[in-house]
Fold this protein.
Amino acid sequence: MSDLGFGLGLRPRHYAAILKSKPRVDWFEALSENYMLPGGRPLHFLDRIRERYPVVLHGVSLSIGSADPLDRAYLAELKALAARIEPEWISDHLCWTGVSGRNLHDLMPLPYTEEALAHVARRVRAVQDHLGRRILLENVSSYVNYRDSAMTEWEFLAALAREADCDLLLDVNNIYVSAFNHGFDPIEFLDGVPAMRVRQIHLAGHDNCGDLIIDTHDAKVIGPVWELYAQALQRFGPVPTMIERDDKIPALGALVRELDRARAIAAETLQKKAA
Amino acid sequence: MKNLESLQRAFQRHVYRPGRVMERAVLATPHANAARRLGVYADGYRSRLVEALGNDYPALKRVLGESGFDRTMRRFIAAHPSRTRNLRWYGGDLGRFLGRSSRGRRKPLAELARFEWALGLAFDAQDAPLARAEDVARVPAADWPGMRLRLHSSVQLIWLLGNATLVWRKGHEPFYRVLSTEEAWALGAVARGRDFAALNGGLRRFVGAGHAAQTSAQFLRNWLAEGLISGVEPPVARRRAQGSSV
């Protein structure tokens, strides 16, 4: 996998501006489910944008950690979309989204147990076999820690990457959010993740409620998350990075400027690392 | 909680109906107890679905107002746990729910919901090429009686406030218009796969034998211009297609 550079989450309100202004963005990340549709405007624009930019697919419904059987119909749809778009890679989240045939439409955290590890690793391998490619799994923001967890989140991620032979999408904001919510040191998280597996980085904003931080993706990236990003690059070297905004989405220009900050931090950090 | 499945079932039950059982499975900290932590998921579930329904049903939301919409959607959500992977398909039963759960005054709301859902279906319906007037012109006059039309996949006929209403997609945007009784019947006949002779035969009942052919020809011109027709199948082509599939 190549170093794609700096990307943005593809959002419908930016379609026209992207095609017209050819913004300073190296690639786009499309939310898979938003394009797992019969036809119409979303797929039309995704095709047009794909003609001009590399695209990666990012899902929210794989439910890789669910106790339910894998959803073969979902996987078939995802594979068909991948055949159409030819994404650089496909990612989803280390979580479950529902059980007993139901869906909570949320990224529910897993207990970090040997049982869950074996279950998820088996399913990741099955998904990778079906798609014919390695997938990336992303660390989620979480608000609960289970009593039964027997290892840390980063130990679980590292073990999973090894046992399932999958890659990782590191959301630096989610590390910050979960570190605040559960009282761990985010640097320990970075140190615990296998550098060779980190293929993509997400950056985003959040809502600090005082007692908990809620991962809202509706605001600018804050200073401490930028600092953590620099530390991540210090450890992992150059990794394709993007800004993910899902709500209160500003004009494209504002996000391109925010992405420029990521470029500047990466340039400075990697220069220091090389020196 | 000893295994993954029982943990997930208990957590899901908590999201649907918060209680004390799940609190024992998660760690509390001095700044946030277990109920507060679990509450983020329970609150998030409902507000996420209400927001998605608001995107699918903007007119219904305007009619009910912010708080009325919120109350009604929470009742729908409680009665309809999501079984779909893609949030896009969650709200399809809202029209039926409103029609069933209500006294007569809710009927217009149920119809409005069905209408807005139809607009959404038109928006991302399957892409298909559109037939043009030239395609019809190529059909020899002798073949017209056996000619059949294929509607674009976005075309839907629904009832809205006592009117037969056509919903379809033009370019990238959903459109709608109210249909006359005879046009509603004619489009329905096309949708059922009836040929042009049957169309003319049926239209006699509405416009009289002298005007049926003229009316159907006018409908066809309009439908082609509006992008409702994906294919014109003369009987010969159909015979060939049937022959080759045997």
Remarks:
- Chain B has two domains: 4-123, 133-245.
- Chain B has a mean pLDDT of 92.
- The domain at 133-245 of chain B is CATH 3.90.930 (Outer Surface Protein A; domain 3).
- The first helix of chain B runs from residue 4 to 16.
